[in-house]
Amino acid sequence: MAVRQVRVGDVLQQVRRMTPVSATYTYPMVGARNFARGSFDAGSLRGADTKYKELQLVEAGDLIYPKLGAWEGAFAFVDENLGHRYTSPEYCVFTICSAEAEAAYLRHLFAWEPFWRSLAANSTGTNVRRRRLQPSAFLDGSLPLPDLPEQEHIATRLDGVASMTGYLKRTRAGLARVKARILAISEVSTYPARPLGDLLRTARIPIDIQADESYRPLGVRSFGKGLIRYPSTKGDDLSKLRYFSVKPDRLVVSNIKAWEGAVAMTCVGDENLVASNRFLQWEAADPAAVDLQFLRLFFGTPLGLSLLGQASPGSADRNRTLSSQRFLELAVPLPPLRQQHHLVDLASQVEAIDAQLEQRDVVSKALLTAARNEAFAELT
Question: Most buried residue, 142, 144, 240, 277, by most Cβ within 10 Å?
Answer without folding.
Answer: 144
